[in-house]
Amino acid sequence: MAFSSFGDWLGLLATTALAQELSGGNYQKATFAIAGVFIVRLLPAVLLGPLAGVIADRFDRRRLMIVCDLLRFALYLSIPLVGNYFWLYTATVLVESVTLFWSPAKEASVPNLVPKNKLESANQVTLLASYGTAPLAALVFSFLALVTRGLENYVPHRFGSSADLALYIDALSFLYTAFIVYQLKEIPKGPATKGAANENIGKALIEGFKFVNDSKVIRGLIFGMLGAFFAAGAVIGLARTFVGDLHAGDAAYGILFGAVFTGLALGISLGPKIFNQFSRRRLFGAALTISSAFLILLALISNLVLALFVTVLLGAFAGVSWVTGFTMLGLEVEDEVRGRTFAFVQSLIRISLVLVLAIAPVAAGAIGRHSFNVRGTVLAYNGAAFTMFFAGVIGVTVGIISYRQMRDRPTVSLWSDVLAAFRGELGAITGAVKTGIFISFEGGEGSGKSTQTKMLKEYLESIGEVVVLTREPGGTPLGIQLRKILLDNQTGHISPRAEALMYAADRANHVYSVIKPALDSGAVVITDRYLDSSIAYQGAGRILQPAEVARISRWATETLTPTLTVILDLPAEIGLGRLDSTDRLESEPLAFHERVRQEFLNLANVDPERYFVVDGKQSKTAIQAQIIERISTLPLLKVNQVAKKKK
Predict the structure, then answer these.
(1) Cα separation of 405 and 224, whole Å?
(2) Are 532 and 445 in contact (CB under 8 A)?
(3) For the domain 2-407, what is the CATH superfamily, name and number?
(4) pLDDT tens digit sequence for 269-321
(5) What is the largest CA-CA distance in the chain?
(6) CA 287 to CA 319: how far, in whole Å?
(7) Domain coordinates in residue numbering, the chain
């Protein structure tokens, strides 16, 4: 793959550069000619993409890949030998048609060759082989662009141009790939061994489309990928023109092209390691949004050096988005429909590229060249820059929509995750999805949590909700025993770390035996104290590192986060004054309880989307009214109420 991708990128650079040369300096003609090369390469996906995926699922995937590689070898070899434009475009269409059958067979085979926990690493290697060779191809192309004139003295131009040399290398790369795949006997045949070959093609296509439509995650992925490639198409289709607007030639075009894929390779290889604490679902949309924002910045830059730097960053975040998206596809899609699903995704991506490659040059050509005089400084912004700017705006919009649709913890803001990651508190959040609604109550001693949890339970049950009321510690038989040890004054002093671990043990069993089963059944779970109490009491109160205590609790709970956390805020002195008797924790000095109170407020400030702070000095009914008003805005509760009204 690495060798064949190198040849392919080299051929792509050569043909687009040739289209630029043939324009004769006409701005509109150059943009249309370059777009024509890309459109010809992508057009077969419009008709053959989904069909190719079904075939990848019906036949021996290894044999299919070998046949496709041999066909691509013959077609690429014929292009410079025939030597006319008609066959160039005809062969290109045929090559891309064959590639449509090869790609889903390869993509569907990878998840079967590695265990699921290694799939992301395998996808990194796959994407690096596909896109990481582009910088090398760009360097070689830039070198060929500089020395190709010297070859004319020894080889006829028809057979010795940089485009011809690239095509010869490209042809040999596919012959080599066919040989390698032939040797890989371990590649599974796929569903062909399970009777898929006898399946009706039309039925298989419909099932593939239905699977994509029924999966919210797959829909979000496809929508995001379409946005990513829409923005990428503007960069690819207008890169040569954009470089020309910066008064640079083919060598600079090769370097800019290489910068995109250098960044892409960095994002693919380093992104999963750097962002391993974030859930893949929210990372995908966030990375796409940031990448598109850099595209907007690139469009505003008129300096080649700065443009190269921004392009690397753009490619890096695009790489993070791509490897994350492909990994989720491999994990979410069953093997029986994986080939057609990958083909469906790739077809939509190619169709979006065809559209943007057709529209972008028209838009750029229509806008034309423009100069702006700003306080004596003349700034030249041409159609390519304007078009890239608007493509970036579209990419940002799609990224935000994709993020909001796919984020698995809608009550936790991205910014709070970023801050928590820097503090080391995320602990590899996987974003467990829960069906029910999880509400926790936190606050200092005497703040009225127990009273408000009971009042909320009564209210929710009055509107038809199934409610499970529990507490920590003491929500399970094990928790009752631990509560006696932790709160009994006769226990005496406990090591702060031992105390934190005991609370974590209670919480782990609590989530496993009470909270998670109730959430899975669709109930509303209300708990009097949860992990935030450990962060406040054992972290800030005991003067341990809150980040360390948070990591322990997140691991113990399998990162189960409340939908909403209500904090009843009350000065420690007032709260302690309400108590008739004191347990082991309540007997701690006033300074201890003030530190606890301040930590609760700190947590709420970091993530105001999840936390709701209520003044505990108010009356019970006033506090309840505010809590009910906030609870009524929860998305899942709204959905439940609508469903019940329909019934």
Answers:
(1) 10
(2) no
(3) MFS general substrate transporter like domains (1.20.1250.20)
(4) 777 667 765 666 777 778 888 888 888 888 787 777 787 888 888 878 877 87
(5) 101
(6) 9
(7) 2-407, 427-646
